[in-house]
Design brief:
Strand order of the largest sheet: 1-2-3-5-6-8
Low-confidence stretches: 184-190
Oligomer: single chain
Number of strands: 8
Radius of gyration: 18 Å
Largest sheet: 6 strands, mixed
Structural class: alpha+beta
Shape: globular
Distance between the termini: 19 Å
Helix content: 25-40%
Length: 190
């Protein structure tokens, strides 16, 4: 296939087949949001809401120090220093899975790999209070400082003691690392 349009059409056929398989497993349409919630629910023992359109809340932690608390799960394919936030008082935590750290420059010529390189747990009310005191716009692409990201990290480094990550959880998260997924893709494509 020499024509780029034909190549893109063929790749989209493959992607649609993969997305159909993933949707069958998750029982929701394939998006990074739904897949991130599904992965997080299994690794961090979260009971997801029946409806994916529940305002501000994706589910509740079932166990640990955060047991019974509400959570909004995000999966950003790159960590670019922003977080989509809500002003809802019903939300206790943001659990954020991210791909590699990235600067906010142009995305031209780059990719957004489907991987998890780090996980963060933010106290929603504390984050909102800190953002208000900094004069930060709340909502979509709300600014989060490097210090806040570092303090919220639970994987691969444990800075936030509220959500300790067990050895089993670490092993499960490693399945989604860029290194692991690239190694697997290379084996499958050979």
């Amino acid at each position: 296939m020499g024509d780029p349009l034909e190549r893109v059409a063929a790749l989209l056929q493959t992607r649609n087949a993969i997305d159909t398989d993933l949707a069958a497993i998750m029982q929701r349409p394939m998006t990074s949001g739904h897949l991130g919630e599904w992965i997080a629910a299994r690794i961090f023992d979260i009971d997801l809401e029946e409806s994916a359109s529940t305002a501000a809340i994706d589910g509740r932690f079932r166990s640990g120090l955060v047991g019974g608390r509400t959570v909004n799960v995000k999966w950003y394919l790159k960590r670019e220093g922003v977080l989509d936030t809500t002003e809802s008082d019903a939300l206790d935590y943001y659990l954020v899975l991210t791909g590699p750290l990235s600067s906010a420059g142009s995305s031209r010529g780059s990719t957004r790999p489907w991987c998890v390189e780090a996980v963060y747990l933010f106290d929603a009310r504390q984050l909102r209070s800190e953002q208000i005191s900094r004069g930060v716009k709340l909502g979509i692409a709300s600014s989060v400082t490097t210090r806040q990201w570092e303090a919220a990290q639970v994987y691969p480094h444990s800075a936030n003691p509220v959500l300790p990550v067990s050895a089993n959880q670490r092993n499960l998260l490693k399945l989604f690392s860029a290194t692991q997924l690239t190694t697997y893709a290379c084996r499958v494509l050979k």
